[in-house]
User: What shape does this take?
Amino acid sequence: MHERIIGLYEENAAAWDRQRGRQLIESAWLERFSEMLPHGGTILDIGCGMGEPMAAWLIERGFSVTGLDSSPSLIAMCRRRFPEQEWIVGDMRRTALGRRFDGLIAWHSFFHLPQGEQRATFPRFSAHAAAGAALMFTSGPCAGETLGEWQGEPLYHASLDAAEYQALLAENGFSVRQHAAKDPDCGDATIWLAQAA
Assistant: This one.
């Protein structure tokens, strides 16, 4: 089911654009993330979708965003809406941009990878993180795999347990700054905010 994620979002890009809420229940976490960044800093948005509302919030505050998403249709929307930023069609599992960013965010995207691929992605986070960079991502609240439903098809999610995320972050040069499991003020999202050494 996890291999279907890329095609599912590409084939339903217009539906996702309509359905994705813009009310920004994530704003408190975006504030925490942005407070760790230098003024006008660079951000890699991993699984950026169509750039709204997360990247739009960051762009409005003067950050320079590079967005990465596997859906060409969603990236095309980003390029139309925010032409002054950089938008890349690519797979987070193979990201190798050869540069480092002040912040990395993988909001409601990283958790579509199966457990083994999540583990393998942490070195990629590290390879793209400048000294002191902020990393924020969402996961599940406990280890396991689950199937939701979207557009009449199964929607795959996976998670490691909290102790393993902490260990992977530490092994890859990050320290946890804040963590919330099923934050009731953020749609029950489980959120990690870490910082590179």
